Amino acid sequence: MAIVVKRPKLSIFEKMYLPAIGKGLLITLSHAIKILRGKKKVTMQYPEEKWDANMPEHYRGAPALVKDEQGRERCVSCQLCEFICPPRAIKIVPGEIPSDDPWAKVEKRPKEFDIDMIRCIYCGMCEEVCPEQAIYLRKDYAITGLSREEMVHDKERLYEIGGVREGLVNKWNELK
Amino acid sequence: MELLFYLFSAVMILFGLGVVVSRNPVTSALCLVMSFVGLACLFIQLDAFFIGIIQILVYAGAVMVLFLFIIMLLDLKAEEGRQINYLALAGGLILCLVFVVQLGSVLTSFEAGDVGKTPQQPEMTTDKNPEGLSELAMERMAEKKLPDVHLVGWTLFTKYNFPLQVVAVLLLVSTIGVVLLSKRKLT
Amino acid sequence: MLEFFSQLTGLIEPTIKIVGLVFLVILPMVAYSVYAERRFSAILQDRVGPNRVGIPFTKVSLAGLGQPMADGLKFILKEDFTPDHVRKVYYWLAPALTMVPALLTCAVLPFGGYLKLPFVDDPFKLVIADLDVGILFVFAIASLGVYGIVLAGWASNSKYPFLGGVRSSSQMISYEISLGLSVIPILMIYGDLNLSNIVQQQHEQGWALLPITLDGFKPVVSMRDLLLLIPLFISFIIFVTSLFAETNRLPFDLPECETELVAGYHTEYSSMKFALFFLGEYAAMIIGSGFAVTLFLGGWSLPFGWGTNGEDSLFWGLVNVGTFFTKVIAFILFFIWVRWSIPRFRYDQLMRLGWVFFFEIALVNILLTAAILMLFRQG
User: Rg (Cα) of chain B, in Å, rounded?
Assistant: First the structure.
């Protein structure tokens, strides 16, 4: 059984259609006047004006590696992020820390750490899974490049974006 | 100017031939339109602007668009593949021949065929106002221009007023008839 | 031979007018009306619109005034693709057939009164062809514009263009009638078909829709003109609405409505052939606004009978040309404003509006005009 929708009964004024057109025209005109007088601003002129200041705390931008307050690479190349990464954007080559290094007790650090930014989907799983809090999603969103190679962030670039982050992981520090 | 006459005549005749010869109905229709345009140009060359423009407006702009509209809905493949009906072709040719002979006989007995190169100014009565013709038309005639729209209207509504009204009623009746026929419910 | 040369020199003046008006004014206006459409629609909808393209290889953006050039270049450089299933001759003919009638009609458009150049005795009449049947010429040529769209729809040989072509032809035939009938009151009042004379009369007696002249500072209005305003206003509304339908603009852009027909009759077209359809539509819009201005809003004349027709002074001649194009541009902006405010009609509503309302109202309107003219007839 189909539902019969009753057509609304229109008054003669409404049936004439012209007043409604006039009303519609006035609405658009009022918007135009507001814009022309600069009372209303909706669009941002992107490359000149940026939204960065209004970025929310939880914004998920480009992933990056961080060092701790003593300049140690936090990553211990456990490769959990490599396994969890849904688009398989992360590639890690683990390396041993030589015994004469002050941080020899950490034992491992990445020899190579590449994130393919063409593949990355900014899901934040790597950040979530990292036991060392070594990988973080930053607020960088304009990741551009002219070639595929350029879009692969290597270890150096990742530390450059990431910088230093003071954090909760204290297990490698000297006991006080 | 003579050159233009021959040009437009050639356009008319060539596209007229195209109407008959081409197998594709759309091509035929468009050739007819071009032939109408050529005819309109000839009218305009004779200073009959009104008739020329109306030729384009009514025939090329309205009637032929409706024709084209109908033709577009036809199955063109069937039309193009149709066999030539030789009997109809022969009949048409004979009819053309008869018409050409008649035209020739009329033209040879008609002296206005050689009026000379410069078209004569039509005889205009500037001294006395023909009843009801507007002042504007009189001004134009004084300027040796042909106010053909005014003259056509004036002639239609004074000399031939009754036939005009009859034709108008006839058209109205046919319009109402069409509406009635198309609105009739299928029982 | 001498006669031939004298005929050739007679061609110089029209040639200058044609080149000046069509190539230096109308065609750039077509390109820039696309830009105006994009910018103005953006303003109406709280957006910004194209404001970046300026002088190439510099940072100068000029509020995006380079956009039409860039668009034109893009159209030329795009691949001109002819699908395999089309009827080639008509497929190539159709874009030209939409552009040509649109530009042809501007031959009788009086874009100014006279221009009195220094060192030249006779003032130039600012109209390409001063035809005594001007309005009929416009309707005749404009009615040929249907062929382009119909042929495009048919020659494309696929279903959406075909439906667009069918819709367009029936729409244009229907609205030509109300367009023609709505102009008749004007012809009855001014008693002439020559557009220059109609404008000259409006210049002397006040515009058709503003029949006021100033005597010093005292407005002069006659009872006859005030009464005639009623049928003229009705005519104006019917004329403008039919103009929207004739130029296939929203709210009557059913031949190309995207939601139902992809792009209508030009679905199969690309590159410059598509651009010709696109620009033909805008050219028709500009020249349509030109005629609305000429017939109802006084053409090149200033309101209240100010100024002269430029027969004796260069200054007023130029002012008149400026007035005309200002009015046309204002009317184009109105076109754009309507397009971005009103939703599309349904097809049966469109046909109903044309045949059941406008046709009858226009007929009654002619009778009303005749009655008023009879009432005030002298002698």
Answer: 22
Residues A45, C340: C-beta atoms closer than 8 Å = no
Dist. CA A163–CA B62, nearest whole Å: 77
* Partner residue opposite A25 with nearest CB, options C47, C48, C341: C341
Q: Which residues of C touch A (CB under 8 A)?
A: 40, 43-48, 237, 337-338, 340-342
**DSSP per position, C17-55:** HHIIIIIIIIHHHHHHHHHHHHHHHHHHTT---S----S
> What is d(CA C179, CA C241) in angstroms, rounded to the nearest whole number?
9
Q: Tell me whether residue B121 is in a domain.
A: no
C46-C49-C50 Cα angle (round to 5): 170
CB contact under 8 A, C337 and A28: yes
**Residues of chain A contacting C48 with CB distance shorter than 8 Å:** 43, 45
Residue C299 and residue C199 in contact, taking contact as beta carbons nearer than 8 Å: yes
Domain endpoint, select from B110, B144, B162: B110
Query: pTM for the whole thing?
Result: 0.80
Q: How far apart are CA B159 and CA B175, in angstroms?
A: 26
For residue A99, the domain's CATH number is 3.30.70.3270
Instruction: Give the confidence band of C100 by pLDDT, cuts at 50, 70, 90.
Output: confident
- pLDDT in the model for residue C4: 67
Q: State the pLDDT confidence band at B112, using cuts at 50, 70 and 90.
A: low
ipTM of the complex: 0.79
Handedness of CA C37, C39, C44, C47 (dihedral sign): positive
Range of the domain at A68: 55-162
Nearest residue on chain C to B29, judged by CA atoms?
C147
